[in-house]
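Entry 12.
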Amino acid sequence: MRSITENCRSGNKILLVANTDWYLFNFRLSLAQELTQEGFEVLFVCPPDEYSKGIQEAGFRLIAWELERQTAPVWDELRSIYKLYKIYRDEKPCLVHHFTIKPILYGSFAARLAGVQAVINSITGRGYIFQDSTGKPVFLRPLTELMFRTVYKGLKAATTFENVSDMVFFTENGLVPKERNWLINGVGVDTDWFQYAPEQPADELLVVFPGRLLWSKGVGVLVEAARILKARLPVRIVLIGRPDPGNPETISEEVIRDWESEGVIEWWGWQSSMREIYHQSHVVVLPSMGEGLSKALLEALSCGRPIVATDVPGCREVVIPGVTGYLVPPNDIEALAEKLERLCKNPDLRHQMGLSGRRLAEEEFTDVKINREIKKIYTLMLDPSQSPHRRL
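Predicted 3D structure (tokens):
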């Protein structure tokens, strides 16, 4: 198979497009660095925010794209599509890679208008529109489904999914074609940086929740389980992360402060070095309602920490029950408290699960392996002689 560069007929630019600079900086920087080493010019396209400086300091050009994450007036949405079309027309990339649902829909349409040679769409989870069956999603879902079916017509695009459940959902509902689909195990983890470390002894064990503070991440369920757990044994439940005002599922800071004042949880906010957090922890918990494939859980695996998570797509791919942690039903407060209690009371079990998790991270989830798989897709999509490929 020829190299990606040889297949790229219209220049050497690749554009990575997302709805936040946070996503691109935290999840796709290593991919961009590998592509640069192979001779590509990689550009980041997203709304600029606090991570833009880090992207630029890493040596990449960032193109500001105006986009509202929540639903905006129709004119603003059309303007976002037009702005993206202008970026594609001016930059003339050989390939664009869209991440998350809104950039996929708007970017696919803009790419077709601009005549982009190859399009990769990465569905990193279903998002609240497809997960929530109440409120605004009830009205937005039919429109979103129609947009999916429309933008894919006549478009040469590959679609990647982070778990089988999402792949089946989007293909069986006719939202994306059944051809040119790939299953990619998330974004991977740098196992050299997120090193294994044995847990440190402590008077009170540390149970860590790493993630955005959203109701859909199960934070409220964890708080109720924490009330039960703290009545049974000395343990600290720590939330690492912050609210996400751009997400309808965000939890207000006032609510979080009330929980903290009550003493049921500790809130450490956003942390720049999660490796040190995992090394301090004894158990990692994520009672989410659904993920693409959780990077936070991959980092916890790599650091050798047992996990308690919900039995939903994006978590069950990481947690092998009884081996690397436990899975519990969504919204099951008692089950969550019971599994956390079992791990907190059994240091030998935590140790064995931690070692198993580290092995799993090294074998299946390294970022080197994931980036290699993505680059293979780039090569196939840029070579017109290749037939559509699908991996389940």
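Annotation: The chain has 16 helices and 13 strands. Residues 163 and 314 are 6 Å apart (CA to CA).
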